[in-house]
Design goal:
This protein is mainly alpha-helical. Helix content is 54%, strand content 0%. Its main location: membrane.
């Protein structure tokens, strides 16, 4: 009694379960496949990331004074990659797979730029381990546009 036809029957009366047509509103009778996440979410992520990129870039240009001048370049690299990939995030909703593209770029921003900001601010390269993973996420994000 657990076959595919029996699953359509009301278990108490063994009669086919059909809701009354007068009890259903016309707008609820059609089913549409809705995405689990709205692709336009990436515009909001880009907005937050853009604010952070501009703020961190401004801090790096006007306030950040490391003892070792080479860390200023590390900060500028972080800021450049952060801003460029934030601009790309704006277009994520219009890609074939927006969540893959947006997710990979966001991961790259956090792992690569975030690591570079940390290394520059603390002036210690021992925190640089996640940076290559962020770079790989950037590459994978751009490559995802091929498929």
């Amino acid at each position: 009694m657990d076959g595919p036809v029996d699953s359509l029957r009301d278990p108490l009366t063994l009669t086919p379960h059909c809701p009354r047509s007068d009890s259903i509103e016309p707008s609820t009778t059609t089913t549409t496949k809705r995405p689990l996440m709205d692709p336009m979410l990436w515009h909001k992520v880009a907005a937050v990331s853009g604010v952070a990129a501009l703020g961190l870039g401004t801090y790096g240009a006007h306030v950040f004074r490391p003892k070792n001048a080479s860390y200023k370049e590390v900060w500028q690299t972080a800021s450049l990659y952060h801003l460029v990939h934030t601009a790309a995030l704006v277009g994520a909703p219009f890609t074939k797979r927006p969540h893959i593209f947006g997710g990979l770029l966001t991961a790259g921003i956090l792992a690569f730029s975030g690591t570079c900001y940390t290394v520059a601010y603390l002036e210690d390269r021992k925190y640089a381990l996640p940076a290559p993973f962020g770079g790989f996420a950037f590459i994978a994000g751009w490559a995802s546009l091929l498929f």
